[in-house]
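Give me the fold.
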Amino acid sequence: MKVIASSIRKGNIIEREDGQLYAVLSAESFHPGKGTPTTQIDMRRISDGVKVSDRYKTTEQVERAYVEDRDYEFLYQDAEGHHFMNQETFDQVQVSADVLGDGAQYLQEGMKVMLSVFNGVPVAVQLPQRVTFEVVETEPAMKGQTASSSYKPATLSNGARCMVPPHISPGTRIVIQTEDGSYVERAKD
């Protein structure tokens, strides 16, 4: 299905002239004062994981591959990969770490995700925008450190590192943005 380049978003699957499928990692449109508006698309080739960057005119046609988006539940991870279950048919599917990328560290047992499937093969995973983790370790707040822009490093229960405000202490549950791993707020549960 042909679409204009400016409508491509992160997570879309596109087919380039070489016949290969690519998962879009980021898409950014530029509108200069003079000249033609362009769209910069960073993508990863699904077959081997090679990253590629392309620049299109915003009105240029791009071939968007038809993929089925289905709801799956994350079950567990082992040496073979990450295992997900279809909510309706209870079929299980295995997804490699290459497809998940950095998002693998935010997976939690029972988490609902959107899996993009092309010809029966999982090609992309869309995580929830926000997830909750417990802070395991962080530096104590410095006395007099009242600037709201000062953040300190913290280690979360999943092993990831994140910058948090000074008032956060170990044992506190916080909400994290999955797209960039940034602190959002203290969990309300």
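The domain at 68-126 is CATH 2.40.50.140 (OB fold (Dihydrolipoamide Acetyltransferase, E2P)).
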